[in-house]
Amino acid sequence: MPNTTDHDTNAHDTTTRLRDGLDTARETVSNAYHTGVDKASDAVHGLESSPVGILVGGLAVGLIAGALLPRSQREKELLAPVGQRISDTARSAVQAAREAGQAELETRGLTKDGAREQVRGLVEGVVQAVSTAGAAAAKGAKQNADG
């Protein structure tokens, strides 16, 4: 008949090892998370004027934390709608940024048609300058020939 004391000791040792392993894993994940947050924070300080940079930094921290922490099936079920909502929100933010950028370019006259007009004006200016220079050269040559 097996000794229950040995069984209890083995169970206690196993439980202790599991707890130690979990504590070590938590500490490793926590350190990795804090390192990621610190690095993202450093990057954000340099990008405070860029909301896109901040968004990317936040996503990177989230991805790191998500990659290091295993998910249960229940978490997957609960978080799927949140992930979809985040994805939809990010897509909307990118679209809004694109539209705002295009509107800003248009207010400054930097559209395709505006660029064509600027190129056309530049070409006309170069043609005019070449024509004026040619006329001046011809006039100078004529004066030298007459003089």
Distance between the termini: 133 Å
Strand content: under 5%
Helical run tally: 4
Low-confidence stretches: none
| Mean pLDDT over all positions | 76
Structural class: mainly alpha
What's the Cα radius of gyration?
35 Å
- Percent helix among the residues? over 70%
Please give the number of β-strands.
0
Shape: rod-shaped
Chain oligomer state: single chain
Order of helices and strands: HHHH
Describe the main β-sheet briefly.
none
Keywords, separated by commas or semicolons:
single chain; 147 residues; mainly alpha
How would you portray this structure in words?
The protein contains four helices and no strands. With 147 residues, it is mostly helical. Helix 1 (4-46) runs antiparallel to helix 2. The longest helix is centred in the first third of the chain and has 43 residues, at 4-46. The mean pLDDT is 76.
